[in-house]
Specification:
By secondary structure, the protein is mostly beta strands. It has one domain: Electron Transport, Fmn-binding Protein, Chain A (Pnp Oxidase, Chain A). The strands form 3 sheets. A 7-stranded antiparallel beta sheet has the order 3-2-6-9-10-5-4. Strands 1-11-12 form a 3-stranded antiparallel beta sheet, with no helix packed on it. It has a two-stranded antiparallel sheet with strand order 7-8. The longest helix is centred in the middle third of the chain and has 9 residues. The relative contact order is 0.20. It binds flavin mononucleotide (FMN). Flavin mononucleotide (FMN) binds next to strand 3, strand 5 and helix 2.
């Protein structure tokens, strides 16, 4: 069966809104990182997630060599840091000059004030054309309560908005979903 054109695929994916993450790693005492939205949960037992990274970027080889990475889920107000790690503030911009950084288990850089952090060992890599899918074993997490995630969709950074319940006589429902 014929596949769709790259243009049609990219246009449709633009409607797939994601939270914005910074993927970091450390190798020989140096820090590396990139902005990524291609991050998702695989399963909760055991805790595994996946990250897709373009092989042409400079961080890709560092993640492969280090065997560890950290997913920093950005919060509202982190759009400048997202641009920095996407290379949009210039190639020579010192990415780690923005924000305050710490570490968890793997020694990969952890950004303070993120909504969530997943510190990971890489369990498996799968090459798919221009990208590597990193299958990650989560060894530590951190959640910052009362922070809202930064989103990216339709070519723009966006904020999360809760659906306002209609003002009516309908009884209150629990709108908390679990999966
Ligand atoms: C919103 C946004 C999402 C992105 N998502 C990804 C992604 O999921 N995977 C990826 O490899 N690059 C992604 N990029 C592109 C990288 O951030 C960009 O190519 C970066 O310059 C790579 O840095 P490096 O060459 O230092 O590794 C994204 C960029 C933006 C602005």
């Amino acid at each position: 069966m014929e596949t769709v054109s790259t243009q049609d695929f990219v246009q449709a994916m633009g409607q797939h809104v994601s939270s914005v993450c910074i993927i970091t790693t450390t190798l020989n005492g140096e820090r590396f990182g990139l902005t990524a939205t291609a991050v998702n949960s695989i399963c909760a037992t055991p805790p595994r997630l996946l990250v897709c990274v373009n092989t042409s970027g400079s961080t890709h080889a560092k993640i492969l060599a280090a065997g560890v990475l950290c997913v920093n889920v950005l919060a509202e107000g982190h759009d400048e840091i997202a641009k920095a790690f996407a290379g949009l503030l210039g190639k020579d911009f010192d990415k780690f000059s923005i924000g305050t950084w710490t570490k968890l288990k793997t020694q990969s850089p952890v950004l303070n004030e993120t909504t969530a952090v997943f510190d990971c060992h890489i369990a498996e890599t799968i090459k798919q054309f221009t990208h590597t899918i990193f299958i990650c074993e989560v060894v530590a997490t951190r959640v910052t309560k009362n922070t809202a995630p930064l989103l990216y969709g339709n070519q723009k950074f966006r904020h999360l908005r809760k659906i306002e319940a209609p003002k009516s006589n309908t009884p209150e429902v629990d709108d908390t979903l679990q999966y």
